[in-house]
Amino acid sequence: MSDVAVVGAGPNGLAAAAVAARAGLSVTVYEANGTIGGAARTQPMNGSAAKFDLGSAVHPMAMQSQAMHELGVHDRVDFIVPELSFAHVLDRRTAYAYRDLERTGQELGGADGQMYTRLLGPLVKQIDAVSNTLLNPLFKVPSHPAALATFAVSTVAGMAVKDLFSGKFERAAALYAGCAAHVAGGSRGPANAGAGLFLAAAAHANGWAIPRGGSQAISDALAAEAMEHGAKILTGTRIEHVDELSARNVLFDTSAESAAKLSAAHLPERLSHALSGTRRSPGSCLVHYVLSEPIPWRDPTLAQAGTVHLGGTAVQVGKAERTAVRRGAAKPFMIVAQPSQFDGSRAPQGQHVIWAYCHVPLDSPVDMSRELEDMIEQAAPGFAETIIESHVVTAKDLEAQNSALVGGDLSGGTMDLLGSIKRPRISPDPWYLQSKGLYLVSSAAPPGPSVHGMGGFLGAQSMLKREYGIENWKAEN
Question: This protein's superkingdom (predicted)?
């Protein structure tokens, strides 16, 4: 019998395995797919010679994550950090978010530049403290109360800029709205505004990083750390119920719904019902392109951006995101990543890989490739002529690729204020499933979505403390 079984080998599951293994426990990871990585996988598709990020492609939170630092990911992975973190296209105008906040403000100019730097400046200066606060449960006593207070004030100000005064600060508001729209649903609430602020601040602090070789490099680094300390990883192994596992503790890097099903008859009825009824964000439709040349942007500066947002003004972005919840938008907000502009290993020589997506209704089978192609074409005339391959992954397809992405929801559950607090339950130890040895460590638990590994990192520490009385896992290796 092993000490720990981890179900799911995404970044959170692998981080959990690494922490438990470094604490001296015997660990086995079970992954249903043939490869590890979950939403941080990179591989060919449909016989293509190119390598595609099946889930996430650009990783702001990996640069802010304590887990990635302490588990050696920053040492094992070559993170490429573009100087132009992201750009936002408004009709024929563009707003640029450089890693250098001062340069960003200068290029925005006037009232827009002053507002943007005033809004982001305090957060960028305190980015480590802000990250430590936000990449931990909301019910934890904050280690940096001053940073939390600054963030709260900035969130209120950001809501005003994005939702009330976007006409006055059009380009600054568009930059901020594009970051907030990474959280699906178009909420006007504080959770959406806060997430957007954190993403924007990260862009001007440690940057929006692209791992050389693709997102798989992050997963492989976490797996290497876990195996170096004795963990075993079994791929192509689907677990149907915890009773199959010969382990004292089981950590679920799965959806909340799957955790409830896998733990049937072991969880309190109320918690099992809550997990099974997790509120969901809209889904996503991804399109992976292989091009004969870089995107022929009308604005050539866009070629320097790791990420490009297409969708117009802050008002238009918000409207498109709210429309996506129920019926989808004819002109959606769109995120485009250009990894092969910075990493030539991703496609055959002379070719380029492009990763693009928009939000759609949950569980939608709709192919949005025509709408996305038209939007890029408007900003880059001649784009269609450069396409060698396109591979569409609908919201339903996303769940088929990775069962943790229920209905194509990349967020692990709705990320509004309630969804951020009740994740999966209101508790100072939210990973513990109120049944001995059972823990939820995926993005369905705090601190939520993005590739940072913190759900597994913190969830495993909860298990070590509760089950073994281990307070300092690093001292046990």
Answer: Bacteria
DSSP 8-state code for residue 323: H
Q: Where are the domains of the chain?
A: 2-44+51-76+211-280+411-476
Give the global pTM: 0.95
Superfamily for the 2-44+51-76+211-280+411-476 domain? FAD/NAD(P)-binding domain (3.50.50.60)
pLDDT beneath 50: ranges in the chain = 476-477
**Residue 363 to residue 225: CA distance in whole angstroms:** 35
Helix, strand or coil, per DSSP, at residue 93: strand
Question: Contact, 19 vs 456, CB < 8 A?
Answer: yes
Q: What is the pLDDT of residue 475?
A: 55
CB of 466 within 8 A of CB of 432? yes
Q: Let me know the angle formed at the C-alpha of 442 by 439 and 446, rounded to the nearest 5 degrees.
A: 85
CA angle 218, 219, 224 (to 5 degrees): 100
pLDDT digits (tens, 9 = 90+) for 156-193: 888 888 877 777 899 999 999 999 999 887 777 888 88
Write out the two tokens for 314.
């802050």
In whole angstroms, give the CA distance from residue 459 to residue 457.
Answer: 6
Q: How far apart are the first and last CA of the chain?
A: 20
